[in-house]
Amino acid sequence: MTETSEEMSIRMIEINNLVKNYGTKFAVDDISFKVGKGEIVGFLGPNGAGKSTTMNILTGYLSSTSGEAKVGGIDILENPNEAKKLIGFLPEQPPLYIDMTVNEYLNFVYEIKGCKLNRERHIAEIRQVTKIEDVKNRLIKNLSKGYKQRVGIAQALVGNPPVIIFDEPTVGLDPKQIIEIRNLIRNLGQSHTVILSTHILSEVQSVCDRIIIINEGKIIADERTENITRVVEENRRYSLKICGPQREIQNLLQEIPGVISVELTGERELDSYTYIVEAEKGVDIRKPVFYVLSEKNYPMIGMEPLGMNLEEVFIKIMDMGR
Ligand code: ADP
Ligand code: MG
C-alpha cells in the first residue's frame, strides 16, 4: 500500500507475524498488517477465518502463540494496561451488565477504565453520539438488540480512545438498525482509527476505506476499497426469466456472441424458465439477449445481475496475482 497523507504514516495499529494455534489448528497463521491514523479498515472473512482471534489478541483479551501486536506503538503483551487505554473494543458478545440501567453501566465502565475526563459531560456526550439518551434510565435487559448494540458501542467510547475495534457490529440486527450502526461507525471514523470485522462484503464496501481479507487464518488481500469494488462489480452473470420453449431458448442464448454458458436453474413459473447466463469478460450481453428474444416473440420477464458471493470474490482476488 502506498501512503499518501502524513497522517497515514502514524501507525496506530501494527501486527507482525501474528500466530495463534490450538494444537494443530492455526486460527491465525502468520498475519501482518498496519493501520494508519484516521483509517477505517474492514476485516473481512467468512466464519472461522480468524477475525475474532485477531481482534481479541489486538485488544489484549487473548494471548498469541507468537508474533507482535502494537497499538499506538505500545506492545499489547509487554504493556497491556497502557495499550488498552488507547483502544475501545466492542467484542462479538458485548460484556453488558443486563441488570444495570444504561447510565449505571456507563458509569461502571467509566470507573473500571479509570477515566479522568469530566464524568457527567463525557457520558452525556457518548449517549448523544450513540443515540441512547432516551433509554438512559432503562434496564439493559429490557432494551432491543439494536439499542443493546449501541450501549456496547457506548462502552467502547468511554475514555475517548483513539482506536476503536468492532467485532461483527451488525450481526443479528434488522436492516434499519444495520443502517443506523453503519452510519454511527462512519461518523466515528472521522475522528478515530477504526477496524471492524464482518463477513458481509457490502458492509465493508459501504463503511471502510480499506479492506483486509482473511481466510483460514491468512491474509489474502489488503486493498483500497475501490480496488476490491472494481473487481466485484465487473458483472458477468445474469439470471434471466424467459417465457417460451426451454430447449430452443437455451440454444438461442448459447449462440449469442460472448455467452460462455447457459444453465437452467430448475425454477419454473407458468410458461417461464430461469436461466443463468455467463458472459465473457468485458462483454455486455444484455442488449443482444433482448433483441434475440424479442425477434422470436419470447418475452423476458426478468433480468437480474448475480453478485459474487464471498467465495467467488476470494477466487477473483487471488487471481489478481497476489
Ligand atoms: P471468525 O471470528 O473469523 O469467525 P475465529 O477467530 O473465531 O473466526 O476462529 C478462527 C478459527 O479458530 C476457527 O476455526 C475456530 O474454530 C478456531 N478457534 C477459535 N477459538 C478456539 C479455541 N478456543 N479452541 C480451538 N479452536 C478455536
Ligand atoms: Mg468472529
Layout of helices and strands, plus pairs?
Blueprint (H helix, E strand, L loop, with lengths): L10 E12 L2 E12 L3 E5 L6 H8 L7 E6 L2 E2 L4 H5 L2 E4 L11 H11 L6 H11 L15 H13 L5 E5 L7 H14 L4 E6 L2 H7 L2 E6 L2 E7 H9 L3 E7 L2 H9 L4 E11 L2 E8 L6 H10 L4 E6 L4 H10 L3
Parallel strand pairs: 3-8, 3-9, 6-7, 7-8
Antiparallel strand pairs: 1-2, 1-4, 4-5, 9-10, 11-13, 11-14, 12-13
| Count of strand segments | 14
- Give unreliable regions as ranges: none
- Structural class estimated from helices and strands: alpha/beta
Under CATH, the topology of the largest domain can be stated as Rossmann fold
Mean pLDDT across residues: 91
CATH architecture descriptor text of the largest domain: 3-Layer(aba) Sandwich
Instruction: State the fourth-level CATH superfamily of the largest domain.
Output: P-loop containing nucleotide triphosphate hydrolases
Instruction: Report the bound ligands by name, code or SMILES.
Output: adenosine-5'-diphosphate, magnesium ion
Count of separate structural domains: 2
Beta-strand residue fraction: 25-35%
Helical content class: 25-40%
- Overall radius of gyration: 24 Å
